[in-house]
Amino acid sequence: MTFTEALKILQKADKNAPLYRVAFACGFTPLHVETLLAGYLQKSLPARRVTITPGMFGDVAGTIEGLREGSADCVAVALEWADLDARLDYRSAGSWGVETPGDIVDEAGRMLARIAAAIARKPAGIKVTVSLPTLPLPPVFHTPGWQAGAQELLLQRHVLDFATQVATSGHAVVVNGRRLDEVSPIESRFDLKANLLTGLPYTMRHAVEVAALLAANLLPAPPKKGIVTDLDDTLWSGIVGEVGADGVQWDLASHQQFHGLYQKLLNQLSEQGVLVAVASKNDPALVERAFARADLLLKPERVFPMEVHWNAKSGSVAR
Predict the structure, then answer these.
(1) Among 33, 176, 226, 269, whose Cα sits 20 to 30 Å from the Cα of 52?
(2) DSSP string across 91-152
(3) What is the mean pLDDT of the chain?
(4) How many CB atoms lie within 10 A of CB 297?
(5) DSSP conformational letter for 22
């Protein structure tokens, strides 16, 4: 979604629709992030009118602590390093001397504990999602760029401990950092000039992706219910009608481990409740013998329904 598209979505929202109130806790000036987040949420809630209330600049913990019963439907938290200690902000006049890192790490630990406690005390019924710090650290830690220093690792540990605490307690949903890495490369996230001039440290691209993931956690799309798979050269390597039930392969020895990995994935999805079905133009007796093999990684009882015949597969998929 572009910034312009977000504005158009918000402009078309029904002004008389019931409100969907979002508290946005971030220590920076929200600007584009706020608009984009509202746009994504509004797109998912056409029957509501999304309103976002940003918190106080530089006070994420205070924003969350200030939540009251009925004040918001959900909370989006966009943490950055500056929220853990002001000396981690380029806008701060604090020292980056050699004695600083240890004190910063201690203060970050205390601030994360305060934020976690505030999230735990939020009124019931308010959903919270948290984006962990996404920007590069300023040059506070005095080790070569290719070396991870002990203090920097301790800081990262505090962040991971915080994320684990709020996620396992069920008090908040944490944005997947690996997914953010895929869609927003680290080198294209930080806008130093905008940060110094306006207080918004994100590039537009990064603002789009952070807003999208926060919105996805607050209003996740309905999960897919099932997957329909083919068999020949898909679930296994080879055509069972040509090589027989014992001739199809999926193991490392035959250099067909790709198919074995696919079987493992389908088996795992089935264990999680996903319906795994088969649609294949094939000989049912041969397929039954292939599924009877002891080394098959997708267990036969995990597959339903199974349509194996010589009619069009499109009919099987439709059914």
Answers:
(1) 176
(2) T------TTHHHHHHHHHHHHHHHHHHHHHTSPTT-EEEEEPP-SPPPTTS-S-TTS--HHH
(3) 94
(4) 18
(5) E
Cα 145 to Cα 143: distance, rounded to the nearest angstrom:
6
> Of the candidates 109, 100, 86, 102, which has an alpha carbon nearest to the alpha carbon of residue 158?
109
Which amino acid is present at 9? Answer: I
Please write the tens of the pLDDT for every residue from 240-275.
999 999 999 999 999 999 999 999 999 999 999 999
Q: Which two tokens stand for residue 78?
A: 């966009």
pLDDT tens by residue, 171-228: 999 999 999 999 999 999 999 999 999 999 999 999 999 999 999 999 999 888 899 9
In three-state secondary structure terms, 246 is coil
The pLDDT of residue 100: 79
Q: What six digits make up the tokens of 219?
A: 């209003």
Which strands make up the sheet holding 275-281, listed edge to edge?
226-229, 275-281, 303-309
* DSSP structure string for 155-208: HHHHHHHHHHHHHHTTS-EE--HHHHHHHS-GGGSB-HHHHHHHS--B-HHHHH
Q: Work out whether strand 49-54 and strand 74-78 pair parallel, antiparallel, or are unpaired.
A: unpaired
pLDDT value at position 36? 97
Q: For residue range 80-133, list pLDDT tens digits in order.
A: 999 999 999 998 867 777 777 888 999 999 999 999 999 999 988 899 999 999
State the virtual CA torsion across 19, 23, 28, 30 in degrees, nearest 10: -10
Cis peptide before 136 (omega within 30 of 0): no
d(CA 63, CA 247): 63
What predicted TM-score, i.e. pTM, was given to this entire model? 0.86
Under DSSP, is residue 293 helix (H, G, I), strand (E, B) or coil? Answer: coil
Distances, alpha carbon 287 to alpha carbons 238, 275, 282, in Å: 12, 19, 7
Give the integer Cα–Cα distance in Å for 7 and 12: 9
Beta bridge partners of 204: none
* Helices 31-44 and 204-218: angle between axes, nearest 10 degrees: 40
